[in-house]
Prior knowledge:
With 458 residues, the protein is an alpha+beta fold. Among the domains are: 3-88, Uridine Diphospho-n-acetylenolpyruvylglucosamine Reductase, domain 2 (2-Layer Sandwich), CATH 3.30.43; 95-213, 2-Layer Sandwich (Uridine Diphospho-n-acetylenolpyruvylglucosamine Reductase, domain 3), CATH 3.30.465.10; 217-324, 2-Layer Sandwich (Alpha-Beta Plaits). It has 16 helices and 18 strands. Strands 15-12-14-13-17-18-16 form a seven-stranded antiparallel beta sheet, sandwiched between helices. Strands 5-6-10-8-9 form a five-stranded antiparallel beta sheet. The chain has a four-stranded mixed beta sheet with strand order 1-2-4-3, covered by helices on one side. β8 (162-168) and β9 form a beta hairpin. α8 packs antiparallel against α10. It is globular.
Amino acid sequence: MSTDKFIKKIEKQLPGKVFTDKEDIFCYGFDASSTEGVPSAVIRPSSTTEVSEIASLAFETGTRLVPRGGGTGMTGGAVPMKNTVVLSFEGMNRIIDIDHKNMIAAVEPGVINQHLQDMLEEKNLFYPPDPASMKFCTLGGNVAENAGGPRAVKYGVTKDYVLGLETVLPDGRVLNTGGITYKGVVGYDLTRLMVGSEGTLGIITKIFLKALPLPEEIATLLCTFSVLDDAAQAISAITSSSIIPRTLEFMDHESISAVENYRTFGLPLDSEALLLIEVDGPHSVVSRDAEKIASLCSSFNGRISVADDMFSKQRLWEARRAISPALYYLKPTKINEDIVVPRGNIPGMLRSLRNISEKYGLLIASFGHAGDGNIHVNIMTDKKNKDEYQRANDALKDIFRSTLDMGGTISGEHGVGLTKKQYIGMELSETSISIMKSIKNIFDPNGILNPGKIFPDD
């Protein structure tokens, strides 16, 4: 049965939930990466039962499905290949339950990250994973990509908070993994396997998340540096100290300039780098840790200011979250990567990035989560300029080689999707890739779920 016949049949089963008009499906063909496609149709299910019906028919007919959350991914994970049908979860956006006593939230995949954050804070609870797109991204997408964020340095990433999942398999069966307990070692950990699988193994329909008590107090510091290497040394000093900051964010001069040209935040344009640092906890601990961090930064010639009111704090974070859109004002094409190196190698990695920038005559803007070694590297170029774009891709390979030489990884939180799949052989052995493909084949023998993602084309 063709994709067209599948669409006609599912339209009868789910009237009003299948869309095929160009104006209705256009915005489902791209994400925050530079890749795009056109789905054959978009289906908006509203229950696990409906997702199961869709998957069963797709399995029977060989129709390829692409699960999609908010479309904020950076590697094309939700971009549809040719002759695929997008499953959009905007209609499954309920916060099902917040169990204050056990500090657990049950949610559907279409819930916006920020919405859960807000509701938990009303109950004096806290969900740490905070991607830059938290006001728009969905929790289903966060789970599929194992999203991180600035607070990961202290609190970890999405996988550290997923206790259980309800997932529809490609043949329509419903798989429940994990549960609502903080411990559980019965059998293989299928929950962890699903987290970060980028929608290639199953379709997430319900998520059980661990919450934490809301911290009593937060202190926010801005430390600016005239010399890039001083900032890098300060990062190493902080991460090797006895303090675990809530966030330790880094911006280089190119990122600072881009943000200030995009919108005036008051960031110092004469700085080669800045660190945005937060510590949280009881008042006495926060005061002590903030003083220690300020002293460490000062010892590396850092200039320290403290955001002492909510408006100042929010303004600093608005500036940090504005980097990605601001960079497009520098060049029309952005090759955005999220490498990670051991924290002690951050100074060496920043020097390597500067050398690569000079070698290829390209503007490279770097920022990110310095506290856990996760640097967002942005090669700014113009896809229409073939020579420059080729140099940008050559530079990217050098960046990945340098990252791996330092014991790092080529993706910390963005996943692989379409944009990185050609490079995974630089990091993973043939044995590792073969085993991963075998796992994919067990879950999805017909290859219908999010095809063309993660693995290089044969």
